[in-house]
Amino acid sequence: MVETALRRPPLAGLVPPPGDAVVLAPVPPAARFILRVRPAAQTAAGEAFGGPLPTIACRAATEGARAALWLGPDEWLLISPDAPDFTALAGVPHSLVDVGHRQAGITVSGPRAAAALNTGCPLDLDEAAFPVGMCTRTVVAKTQIVLWRTAPETFHVEAWRSFLPYVCGYLAEASREFSG
Protein backbone atom coordinates (compact mmCIF):
# COMPACT_ATOMS: atom_id res chain seq x y z
CA MET A 1 0.00 0.00 0.00
CA VAL A 2 1.35 3.43 -0.95
CA GLU A 3 1.13 6.14 1.67
CA THR A 4 0.91 9.77 0.65
CA ALA A 5 2.86 12.34 2.64
CA LEU A 6 0.76 15.25 3.75
CA ARG A 7 2.31 18.70 3.57
CA ARG A 8 1.93 20.35 6.92
CA PRO A 9 2.71 24.00 7.67
CA PRO A 10 5.89 24.28 9.77
CA LEU A 11 4.04 25.90 12.67
CA ALA A 12 0.86 23.82 12.63
CA GLY A 13 -0.49 23.90 16.17
CA LEU A 14 2.40 26.04 17.48
CA VAL A 15 1.12 29.57 16.81
CA PRO A 16 -0.58 30.93 19.92
CA PRO A 17 -4.05 32.46 19.77
CA PRO A 18 -3.94 36.13 18.74
CA GLY A 19 -3.47 38.66 21.50
CA ASP A 20 -4.57 42.26 21.57
CA ALA A 21 -1.07 43.74 21.34
CA VAL A 22 0.87 41.17 19.26
CA VAL A 23 -0.38 38.62 16.72
CA LEU A 24 1.80 35.81 15.36
CA ALA A 25 0.65 34.06 12.19
CA PRO A 26 2.29 31.72 9.66
CA VAL A 27 2.60 33.11 6.15
CA PRO A 28 1.10 31.05 3.32
CA PRO A 29 3.36 28.50 1.65
CA ALA A 30 5.57 30.08 -1.00
CA ALA A 31 8.50 29.40 -3.28
CA ARG A 32 11.72 30.96 -1.99
CA PHE A 33 14.97 31.51 -3.84
CA ILE A 34 18.29 33.15 -3.12
CA LEU A 35 19.40 34.98 -6.26
CA ARG A 36 22.90 36.32 -6.78
CA VAL A 37 23.41 38.39 -9.90
CA ARG A 38 25.59 41.28 -11.01
CA PRO A 39 24.07 44.76 -11.44
CA ALA A 40 24.12 44.51 -15.24
CA ALA A 41 21.69 41.57 -15.09
CA GLN A 42 19.29 42.89 -12.43
CA THR A 43 16.67 43.98 -14.93
CA ALA A 44 16.70 40.61 -16.70
CA ALA A 45 16.47 38.83 -13.35
CA GLY A 46 13.50 40.97 -12.30
CA GLU A 47 11.72 40.26 -15.58
CA ALA A 48 12.32 36.52 -15.16
CA PHE A 49 11.04 36.69 -11.56
CA GLY A 50 7.93 38.64 -12.54
CA GLY A 51 8.64 41.67 -10.38
CA PRO A 52 11.35 44.27 -10.00
CA LEU A 53 14.42 43.81 -7.85
CA PRO A 54 14.82 46.68 -5.38
CA THR A 55 17.42 49.28 -6.29
CA ILE A 56 17.99 50.56 -2.74
CA ALA A 57 19.97 48.46 -0.27
CA CYS A 58 18.04 46.72 2.52
CA ARG A 59 14.69 47.35 0.86
CA ALA A 60 11.99 45.13 -0.59
CA ALA A 61 10.11 45.50 -3.85
CA THR A 62 6.76 43.83 -4.39
CA GLU A 63 4.66 43.02 -7.43
CA GLY A 64 1.36 41.48 -6.42
CA ALA A 65 2.19 38.52 -4.16
CA ARG A 66 5.84 38.44 -5.29
CA ALA A 67 8.53 40.05 -3.16
CA ALA A 68 12.24 40.62 -3.74
CA LEU A 69 14.30 41.53 -0.67
CA TRP A 70 17.78 43.01 -1.18
CA LEU A 71 20.05 41.29 1.37
CA GLY A 72 23.47 42.20 0.01
CA PRO A 73 25.26 43.95 -2.85
CA ASP A 74 24.43 41.12 -5.26
CA GLU A 75 21.97 39.00 -3.25
CA TRP A 76 18.17 38.90 -3.09
CA LEU A 77 15.65 36.71 -1.34
CA LEU A 78 12.78 36.09 -3.77
CA ILE A 79 9.40 35.03 -2.38
CA SER A 80 6.60 33.98 -4.72
CA PRO A 81 3.32 32.06 -4.39
CA ASP A 82 4.51 29.86 -7.26
CA ALA A 83 7.85 28.92 -8.77
CA PRO A 84 8.72 31.53 -11.43
CA ASP A 85 10.11 30.47 -14.80
CA PHE A 86 13.74 31.53 -14.67
CA THR A 87 14.65 30.13 -18.11
CA ALA A 88 15.07 33.71 -19.37
CA LEU A 89 18.24 33.84 -17.25
CA ALA A 90 19.91 31.12 -19.35
CA GLY A 91 23.19 32.55 -20.56
CA VAL A 92 23.19 35.28 -17.90
CA PRO A 93 25.80 34.71 -15.17
CA HIS A 94 23.88 34.19 -11.93
CA SER A 95 23.33 31.87 -9.00
CA LEU A 96 19.81 30.77 -8.14
CA VAL A 97 19.21 28.46 -5.18
CA ASP A 98 15.81 27.11 -4.16
CA VAL A 99 15.54 27.58 -0.37
CA GLY A 100 11.81 26.89 -0.15
CA HIS A 101 12.31 23.65 1.76
CA ARG A 102 14.82 25.23 4.13
CA GLN A 103 12.88 28.22 5.40
CA ALA A 104 9.42 29.55 6.08
CA GLY A 105 7.91 32.70 7.49
CA ILE A 106 5.63 34.21 10.09
CA THR A 107 4.10 37.63 10.49
CA VAL A 108 4.38 39.53 13.73
CA SER A 109 1.77 42.27 13.86
CA GLY A 110 -0.05 44.54 16.24
CA PRO A 111 0.61 47.78 18.12
CA ARG A 112 3.41 46.15 20.19
CA ALA A 113 4.96 43.98 17.43
CA ALA A 114 8.19 46.01 17.32
CA ALA A 115 8.51 45.89 21.11
CA ALA A 116 8.02 42.11 21.16
CA LEU A 117 10.66 41.66 18.46
CA ASN A 118 13.03 44.00 20.30
CA THR A 119 13.08 41.71 23.32
CA GLY A 120 15.45 39.51 21.31
CA CYS A 121 16.49 41.62 18.30
CA PRO A 122 19.24 44.26 18.66
CA LEU A 123 17.99 46.53 15.84
CA ASP A 124 16.23 49.84 16.42
CA LEU A 125 12.77 48.96 15.13
CA ASP A 126 11.31 52.43 15.54
CA GLU A 127 9.61 53.28 12.25
CA ALA A 128 11.97 56.23 11.72
CA ALA A 129 14.99 53.89 11.85
CA PHE A 130 13.40 50.79 10.27
CA PRO A 131 10.68 52.08 7.90
CA VAL A 132 8.06 50.15 5.97
CA GLY A 133 9.77 48.29 3.14
CA MET A 134 13.10 47.88 4.94
CA CYS A 135 14.57 44.39 5.27
CA THR A 136 17.77 42.91 6.64
CA ARG A 137 19.39 39.86 8.16
CA THR A 138 19.49 39.97 11.93
CA VAL A 139 18.83 37.74 14.93
CA VAL A 140 15.98 37.08 17.32
CA ALA A 141 17.07 35.30 20.47
CA LYS A 142 20.19 33.73 18.94
CA THR A 143 18.37 32.69 15.74
CA GLN A 144 19.36 34.15 12.38
CA ILE A 145 16.36 35.64 10.58
CA VAL A 146 15.47 37.91 7.71
CA LEU A 147 13.28 40.74 9.02
CA TRP A 148 11.06 42.80 6.70
CA ARG A 149 8.69 45.55 7.80
CA THR A 150 5.62 45.26 5.55
CA ALA A 151 3.38 47.81 7.31
CA PRO A 152 3.73 50.22 10.25
CA GLU A 153 2.69 47.52 12.74
CA THR A 154 3.55 44.38 10.72
CA PHE A 155 6.80 42.46 10.25
CA HIS A 156 7.55 39.43 8.09
CA VAL A 157 10.09 37.08 9.70
CA GLU A 158 11.88 34.42 7.61
CA ALA A 159 13.87 31.70 9.36
CA TRP A 160 14.98 28.15 8.81
CA ARG A 161 12.05 25.78 9.33
CA SER A 162 13.81 23.93 12.12
CA PHE A 163 14.20 27.19 14.07
CA LEU A 164 10.70 28.61 13.50
CA PRO A 165 9.06 26.79 16.43
CA TYR A 166 11.75 28.27 18.71
CA VAL A 167 11.34 31.78 17.26
CA CYS A 168 7.55 31.54 17.48
CA GLY A 169 7.68 30.25 21.07
CA TYR A 170 10.13 32.98 22.05
CA LEU A 171 7.98 35.71 20.51
CA ALA A 172 4.81 34.25 22.06
CA GLU A 173 6.46 34.40 25.47
CA ALA A 174 7.79 37.91 24.83
CA SER A 175 4.32 39.01 23.74
CA ARG A 176 2.81 38.01 27.09
CA GLU A 177 4.45 41.09 28.60
CA PHE A 178 2.31 43.28 26.36
CA SER A 179 -1.01 41.44 26.78
CA GLY A 180 -3.82 43.33 28.38
In short:
With 180 residues, the protein is of the alpha+beta class. 15% of the residues lie in helices and 34% in strands.
Structural class: alpha+beta
Integer tally of domains: 2
CATH topology of the largest domain: Gyrase A, domain 2
Number of separate helices: 3
Enumerate the spans where pLDDT stays under 50 for 5 or more consecutive residues.
none
Strand segment tally: 10
The shape is globular
Percentage of β-strand residues:
25-35%
Strand order of the largest sheet: 1-7-10-9-8
Could you characterize what this model shows?
By secondary structure, the chain is of the alpha+beta class. The protein folds into two domains: 82 residues, Probable tRNA modification gtpase trme, domain 1 (Gyrase A, domain 2, 2-Layer Sandwich); 68 residues, 2-Layer Sandwich (Alpha-Beta Plaits), CATH 3.30.70. It contains three helices and ten strands, in the order ββαβββββαβββα. Strands 1-7-10-9-8 form a five-stranded antiparallel beta sheet. The mean pLDDT is 91.
